[in-house]
Amino acid sequence: MTRDDDIKDTPRIICNSNGLETDHIFGLRQGARDYLVKPIEPGKWLEKIAALT
Does residue 42 have a cis bond before it (omega within 30 degrees)? Predict the structure, then answer.
């Protein structure tokens, strides 16, 4: 996704059930702007989205 010129600037948040630090780091290295572990509280989700704008 980070190599596709049409969408490379679109911010991404990974939502995963795995909370391992290695997965978090890997996701950010792949171009995600943030990483959330499920279950996600609605307020936290909205907070992260607001931070992207």
Answer: no
